[in-house]
Design a protein that fits this description.
This protein has 285 residues and is mostly helical. Helix content is 76%, strand content 0%. The protein has helices at 8-44, 54-61, 63-93, 97-100, 108-135, 140-148, 155-189, 192-204, 211-228, 232-248, 268-284.
Length: 285
């Protein structure tokens, strides 16, 4: 540890204020930028008239807004999450920011295991999320609207999505949630910070149907960070998790531009194979 806990209340207050302050600014500015981006597209782009009901038209037209919305995500993550977190660490805790967030190399096996564990848990996590969708009878069109933002239809768009959806959150969210918030709570809470920040990580994404899965992922990333005392395993695991989704949603550009099927069911046998493997690797970790 760079600094000893200089009063538990002060340390916890720093982490809590960062969470509330950065979170409030993040979501309010993001909403304003998203509205502005959609408005600019409507003013500058001729969007063909779509047929069908409201959700059909929305699914078909959302592709025209996807790139501006992706740009909003990049702006928000770097300017309104990463930079404020780094500034607060330097202002409130230590000038040695890199050491505080534990951005340092660790054993390569830690990083490899973290990636393999995360990949092993993905089928079970998706199965749980799919069950929520089926049990609550959520319209498929709503799922398709969300999936369209993360769908690519060319190699160039795929590369852009890897930067937006994989690299950016793996860097910005991990530095904020693990490197700053969990690291600060850890000074007074120890391993309990893994659970707390894991749940808050799930809530942060505002996806009620994926809350359980996202919270479990948050706890996994937090455990990798807590156990290895390095940010690299959780960053690699976060990147691998998001990359899996981007690969899954890639559409062959030579094929007709079809609507994304966002509700394909994960086979139970796959969960039965990968989940025990993930638990075994987690024990090895």
């Amino acid at each position: 540890d760079v600094l000893p806990a200089n009063g538990d209340e002060a340390v916890n207050a720093a982490a809590l204020l960062a969470l509330l302050g950065i979170g409030a600014v993040y979501f309010n500015v993001q909403s304003l930028l998203a509205i502005a981006a959609v408005g600019i597209v409507k003013l500058t782009t001729t969007i063909p008239e779509q047929t069908g009901d409201f959700f059909d038209r929305l699914v078909k037209s959302i592709k025209y807004f996807s790139n501006p919305l992706r740009l909003v995500v990049v702006i928000m993550q770097y300017l309104f999450m990463l930079l404020p977190a780094l500034w607060l660490i330097k202002r409130w805790h230590t000038k040695n920011v890199r050491e505080y967030i534990r951005l340092r190399p660790g054993p390569i096996l830690d990083t490899i295991l973290a990636v393999l564990i995360t990949l092993s848990f993905i089928p079970a996590g998706n199965y749980i999320a799919d069950e929520f969708v089926r049990q609550l009878k959520v319209p498929q069109k709503l799922m398709e609207i969300n999936a369209e933002i993360f769908t690519s239809r060319s190699p160039a768009e795929f590369a852009w999505l890897v930067f937006v959806v994989c690299l950016t959150p793996a860097l910005c969210e991990e530095i904020f949630f693990r490197g700053y918030v969990q690291r600060t709570f850890e000074r007074t809470m120890g391993w309990k910070s893994v659970i707390l920040i894991g749940v808050l990580f799930g809530l942060f994404h505002f996806q009620p149907l994926g809350l359980v899965t996202l919270s479990i992922l948050g706890m996994l990333f937090g455990y990798f960070y807590y156990r290895s005392k390095s940010l690299l395993p959780s960053m690699a695991a976060h990147f691998a998790n998001n990359l899996t989704a981007v690969i899954f949603l890639f559409r062959d550009p030579s094929q007709p531009d079809d609507v994304v099927n966002a509700t394909s069911q994960i086979p139970l046998w796959l969960v039965g194979v990968t989940l025990p493997l993930g638990v075994g690797l987690l024990i090895a970790y």
